[in-house]
Amino acid sequence: MSGIAGCVQNHNKPAIDTPAEEKIPVYQLADYLSTECSDIWALQGKSTETNPLYWLRAMDCADRLMPAQSRQQARQYDDGSWQNTFKQGILLADAKITPYERRQLVARIEALSTEIPAQVRPLYQLWRDGQALQLQLAEERQRYSKLQQSSDSELDTLRQQHHVLQQQLELTTRKLENLTDIERQLSTRKPLEISRRIRRTRVKSPRHPPMRSLLMSHKPAHLLLVDDDPGLLKLLGLRLTSEGYSVVTAESGAEGLRVLNREKSRFSYQRPADG
């Protein structure tokens, strides 16, 4: 019996070599997930403002507001405390504010960041990083917009230059076509014009041939002496034929040429018949 009792006593004693269980500090946070968004902004106090779950719920409720509602709600928190400044930032973050307004908002909260409790600081830093990304995105969009405007302006300039060059090309083409037509007309009229000029030249040419050509020719030519002058005939080396014509040859010499040129009005020329 005693042996059984001994076994029982040993069984009830805790083991000496069993390690002590780790003690987790009991600290419970209020969960604001079930809090209505219409009531979340009115809550305040240290236990609420140091609870990151409260701020997460506030961010969730701010996302559900329209931009005009967010701006109207944010006007109620302008006392300059870190709590209300953070609320303003959360409300205005998605209210379609300008990059300048967002930059000013982040700067105001950052100036009060030393007052933010340690429990809320990690959440605030995540929110601040998100705002920095929003600002960077806005800058990239602005840069892209400027590049787009510059490209559009360059394209407009190129279009205008192309239009001007096209007009110049069309004008030059018309001029070339006109010149081609004129050249074609001239080439067609040229033979006719030449023949007309030849006819006019023949009509206007003197009746008497050049005396030098006449005297230097080896073929006999007939000169009708209008005023028979034996002395002139002798000087020119001419002789009167039975037909009443005087025949001149190259034998007349230089003196005869000069006299004949001087007295050519006294002669009429008749080309001899061939043969």
- What's the alpha carbon Rg, rounded to whole Å? 63 Å
Q: Percent helix among the residues?
A: 55-70%
Oligomer: single chain
Number of helices: 11
Strand content: 5-15%
Apparent shape? rod-shaped
What does the model show?
- The protein has 275 residues and is mostly helical.
- Among the domains are: 40-138; 222-263, no CATH class.
- Helices cover 62% and strands 5% of the residues.
- It has eleven helices and four strands.
- It has helices at 2-12, 37-40, 46-49, 52-63, 67-74, 82-92, 99-111, 121-204, 211-216, 230-236, 253-262, and strands spanning 221-225, 239-240, 246-248, 267-270.
- A four-stranded antiparallel beta sheet has the order 2-3-1-4, with helices on one face.
- Helix 6 runs antiparallel to helix 7 (99-111).
- It starts with a helix and ends in a 5-residue tail after the last strand.
- The model is unreliable at 1-9, 203-222 and 269-275 (pLDDT under 50).
- One of its GO terms (biological process) is phosphorelay signal transduction system.
- Residues 130-175 form a coiled coil.
